[in-house]
Design a protein that fits this description.
By secondary structure, the chain is mainly alpha-helical. The chain contains 3 helices and no strands.
């Protein structure tokens, strides 16, 4: 029935993944994961829909200052 070690390992992996999926489905783990992801997504979309908040101003300043720092470092290294 089991002719090689690879076949034993493959069947063990398939059985383990199947058992984990059944246990996850039975305990409601997938529902908890879906609720967590949807909550994070809703919070992120709410943050995106408030364009004039302090968070957006700070994020915009951070996005603009990083390329400036990189350019200053490149110029400093290039000038020696």
């Amino acid at each position: 029935m089991f002719k090689s070690a690879r076949l034993i390992i493959a069947r063990s992996l398939i059985g383990g993944v199947s058992l984990a999926a059944i246990i996850g489905w039975g305990t409601g783990l997938f529902g908890v994961i879906a609720d967590t992801v949807s909550g994070l997504w809703n919070n992120f979309m709410g943050w995106l829909n408030s364009p004039l908040g302090w968070e957006h101003l700070l994020a915009g300043a951070g996005v603009l200052i990083i390329p400036v720092i990189v350019l200053v470092l490149i110029f400093a290294i290039a000038d020696g």
